[in-house]
Design brief:
This protein has a domain of about 140 residues: Roll (Pnp Oxidase, Chain A). Strand 3 and strand 4 form a beta hairpin. By secondary structure, it is of the alpha+beta class. About 25% of the residues lie in helices and about 35% in strands. Strands 1, 2, 3, 4, 5, 6, 7, 8 and 9 form a 9-stranded antiparallel β-sheet that branches. It contains 5 helices and 9 strands. Helix 4 crosses helix 5.
């Protein structure tokens, strides 16, 4: 074990977290059977009650971690209301976990348009057809809505709905966790006071 306390092969000695996250995500893409980019996103509603659900990470860089959703959905309204959120990745095949939390910004229209255009045609239709998080009378009502929008956009481009876009979590902390015997896990937290500030690296008790 090195002076920094980081185990060779599992962590890096770098003083910023994004390269380490990229390395772990690449490992997960080789080992996880389904959706290595799946991540739990936690939010809080206007009454202070928490919510959590799984989404797919669609991009990340030093500016933050991006996912897309219907802004009229429950998570969309909660993120817009609080402008804060948290994420938790858990890769069981690797016995690794990454947690992060921070402030949230809306991605640019250009980013949202580019990702929306890359989606399967059926998924783009679904973004129009689903009134996400609202009561659904019957499955038939959803299928009818899908059929209506499929007919409306039978040919040509399908525009991005005005209520559909992406969020970028700009992390103030990112914690890397690796399972170790006897619950004596390795935990390294990177933290900073502001979203564009320098990182502090801290080893945590398991």
């Amino acid at each position: 074990m090195s002076e920094s306390g980081l185990i060779t092969g599992d962590f890096t000695a770098e003083n910023e977290p994004f390269a380490l996250f990229g390395s772990w995500l690449k490992d997960a893409e080789s080992s996880e059977p389904n959706d290595p980019n799946a991540v739990a996103v936690a939010t809080v509603d206007e009454n202070g009650m928490p919510n959590v659900r799984m989404v797919l990470l669609k991009g990340y860089d030093e500016s933050g971690f991006v996912f897309y959703t219907n802004f009229e959905s429950q998570k969309g309204r909660e993120v817009l209301g609080q402008k804060k959120a948290a994420m938790c990745f858990h890769w069981k095949s690797l016995r690794r976990q990454v947690r992060l939390r921070g402030e949230v910004e809306v991605v640019s229209d250009a980013e949202a348009d580019a990702y929306y255009a890359s989606r399967a045609r059926g998924s783009r239709i679904g973004a129009w057809a689903s009134k996400q998080s609202r009561p659904l009378e019957t499955r038939f009502a959803l299928e009818k809505s899908v059929a209506e929008y499929t007919a409306r956009y039978a040919i040509g481009d399908i525009p991005r709905p005005p209520y559909w876009s992406g969020f970028r979590i700009k992390p103030l902390s990112i914690e890397f966790w690796h399972d170790r015997p006897f619950r004596l896990h390795d935990r390294i937290e990177f933290r900073r006071a502001v979203a564009d500030g320098p990182w502090e690296k801290v080893r945590m008790y398991p």
